[in-house]
Amino acid sequence: MVSISTLEQEIKNTLSPFRFQHSLGVMKKAEELATVYQVDVEIAKLTGLAHDIAKEMSDQELLLFAKTHHLDIDPVELAKPTLLHGKVGAIIVGEKYNFTKEMQDAICFHTTGRKDMTMLDKIIYVADKIEDNRQKVPDELKELATQNIDVVLKYFYTTAMEKAIRKDSLLHPLTVEARNSLIIGQLRKEKE
User: 111: part of which helix (H) or strand (E)?
Assistant: First the structure.
């Protein structure tokens, strides 16, 4: 697998300075969360660093890549192709850097979430939202991520849903599934 320093240089050459700084921030936050939640730190750092590798591709590039790689494109992604950057990025890191399926999945679902997320999925999703370059995220939420990542996930899922309703915009069905899955898991724990 690729080294962090090699990947960092390639990401720096691929993305804008703004997006590169964000990727470094996600890598750092993923490292912190991986330590707390006992996930392989190296894996979390690589995944966090590469999570937005396809973010700055144009809508046309994303759609063409998805079609040539026979990816399923759902109606929401067709209407809003930027959502494909996770799926496309997952393929890129698999082909180019031999990322594992778990790492690819965490990149694939870092924007939408999914039901039954792995801890690496959760770490990358949350790290993307709370990395230190994100000024509008309350410090209490960043701290809570180190104590109960599921509460923070539910907060971001709910916020995404509220924002979509408020702006009368699309919401990916995987986000609804992810939130419901999390709540079902919480209800099961309460019954035990």
Answer: none
The parts of the chain modelled with pLDDT lower than 50 are none
Give dist(CA 109, CA 104) in Å, integer. Answer: 9
Q: Which of 115, 142, 117, 143 is closest to 131 using CA atoms? A: 142
Give CA–CA dist 176/173, Å, rounded. Answer: 5
pLDDT, tens digit (0-9, with 9 covering 90-100), for 112-154:
999 999 999 999 999 999 999 998 899 999 999 999 999 999 9
What confidence score (pLDDT) does residue 1 get?
A: 87
> CA 117, 121, 124: angle at the middle one, nearest 5?
150
pLDDT of residue 45: 98
Amino acid letter, 162: E
Q: How many other C-beta atoms are found inside a 10 Å radius of the C-beta of residue 151?
A: 13
Residue 106 buriedness (CB in 10 A; 0-12 / 13-18 / 19+):
buried
Query: How far apart, in whole angstroms, are the C-alpha atoms of residue 86 and residue 18?
Result: 18
